[in-house]
Amino acid sequence: MFAMGDAIKNSGLVLGPSLIAVVGTICVFAQHLLINASAHAAQRLRLAVHPDYPETMQYSLEAGPWLFPRWAVAGRKTVYVCLVCTQLGFCAVYFMFVASNMKQVLDQYLPAIDVHVYMAMALAPILLECWVRSLKYLVPFSLVANACMYAGIAITLYVCVRDGLPLPADRSLFADVSRLPLFFGTALFCFEAIGLTMALKNEMRNPDDFSRPLGVLNVGTAFIGVLLITLGSVSYIKYGEDVLALIPLNFDQSDVLCQVIKVGLCIGILFTYPIQAFVPFEIMWPAVERRFRPLRYPVAAELAFRSAVVLLTFALAESIPRLGLFISLLGSVSSAFLALIFPPLMDWCWRWRHGAPAWRHATNAAILLLGVFGGSWGAYAALVEIVDAFAKGEMTVS
Question: Where do the coiled-coil regions begin and end (predicted)?
Answer without folding.
Answer: none
